[in-house]
Amino acid sequence: MENVNRKRLFIASCLALLVTAITFAIRARIEGVFTDDYGLSKEEVGRAFGPAFWGFAVAMFAGGYFIDIVKTKTVVWMAFAMHLVGIVLLLMAKDYTSLFIANVFIGLGNGSVEAACNPLVATLFPDKKTKMLNRFHVWFPGGIVIGGLLAWLLMDALNLRWEILVGLLFIPLAIYGFMFLGQKIPETERVASGVSYKEMMRNVGAPVTITVAVIIMILVATVPSLSVSFDSALPFIIVAAIILLIVVEGRVVNKITLLFPLVFFCMLLTASTELGTTQWINALLAENGISPMIILVVVTGIMAVGRFFAGGLVHRLNPTGVLLGSAIISTAGLLLLSISTGAVMTLLSAAVFAVGVCYFWPTMIGVASEYIPKSGALGMSILGGAGFVATSMVLPIMGKSIETAGAHITLRNMSVLPVILIVAFIALILIVKKHNQKAE
Question: Is 0.85 surpassed by the pTM of this model?
Answer without folding.
Answer: no
